[in-house]
Amino acid sequence: MDYNYRHSSRRLTIFAHFFGVLAFILMLIWLLHYRGGLQYDSYDNYDRVFNVHPFLMYCAFIFLAGEAMMAYKTVQASHHSQKIAHMVLHLSAFILGVIGISAVFKFHDMAGIEDMYSLHSWIGLSTFCLFGMQWLFGLFSFFSPAATPETRMRVAPLHRAAGRALLYLSICAALTGIIEKFTFQRLKNEREARLMNFMGLSILLFGIFVDLSVALARDSSPPY
Amino acid sequence: MDYNYRHSSRRLTIFAHFFGVLAFILMLIWLLHYRGGLQYDSYDNYDRVFNVHPFLMYCAFIFLAGEAMMAYKTVQASHHSQKIAHMVLHLSAFILGVIGISAVFKFHDMAGIEDMYSLHSWIGLSTFCLFGMQWLFGLFSFFSPAATPETRMRVAPLHRAAGRALLYLSICAALTGIIEKFTFQRLKNEREARLMNFMGLSILLFGIFVDLSVALARDSSPPY
């Protein structure tokens, strides 16, 4: 029924890459220039341990996961290779996510801060668990020889819809995290405040362009 | 290509209503029991003026807008009546949104707080402007006699994708707003903190179920 938006979808992918890389650069400037750098195994500098958390969570659950969603359009290879790229990118995201989450628990331990009281932590940890379940569900549905093409076609719309929901959950987790840090530091109109806002906006725009590029191209790729 | 998810989509709509109403109730308990109530024209109580803002923004840009998105499934009437319900619900959302936004500017004036420095305000005001543009774009594309069925079919996927992006933008605005207030009040594990977290989660789940119910039903309704 729908028109073929394959061409505009490609342009949307480029916008997505742009905002993804922009957010990555802004994140690095923020952590290295304003927040003292990253170090997971620091014994005395809590902040350097904490900084591993936003960096890895963005790289994993937003950038890599978003790129994985667009793999069917960006990876110029057979459909099977695209599927493998999609799966492996999500797996890497999950592994980096484990390190990123353990960094923030380590920071809380070092600084004597309570765990899991904020909305950010609730959204973040739920997203992480659901992400793991979606990955396993995807593996069984699309890679297992037991799943027939019939099953895959039935499961595909659910897999896509759940994947999109997870992308937006991750974006919400990121934005609530940024604003929590922003408010804790009592920032207003300093340069760091502007930088953090632009970083948050870039993350949001990355998510929106990933969603749009995938949604508008959905009729131009096979459903499983 | 996709299977018809009309039946599961109906169940998803019920989940959406449930979380929408739950968020509304939690919002009322929060504002009336913990935050001293709502009053737009209060001269001395800043907080009561502020409280109009989260209440109206949730009712307008999340609840009414979400219900408007589901109108094609929930309003048991002709397609034309569904279109009118969709348009009128969005228009009401826009009007309530204007009052809700002016409430927070009024609060800032009264309390001597700077405007527009936070990520919440940036996301919120951008969403508001884009929402207005999407409404006008929808009016011209789907109600103007000048737009042919051909144009409508071409525009529909863009309108749907942009609408979904706006729903998630509103959710991000709401969650960043809640967490900003939460952090300003330095809440931790008090009852109010839990209530606010559950309210935030309900808002997020409302958005996700609206999206899922509309996305999974997309092949069971005409595209314009």
TrEMBL record, chains A, B:
EC number: 7.2.1.3
Gene3D superfamilies: 1.20.120.1770
Cellular component, GO annotation: membrane
Protein localization: Membrane
Entry membrane topology: Multi-pass membrane protein
Cofactor(s) required for function per UniProt: heme b
Principal subcellular localization: membrane
Official protein name in the record: ascorbate ferrireductase (transmembrane)
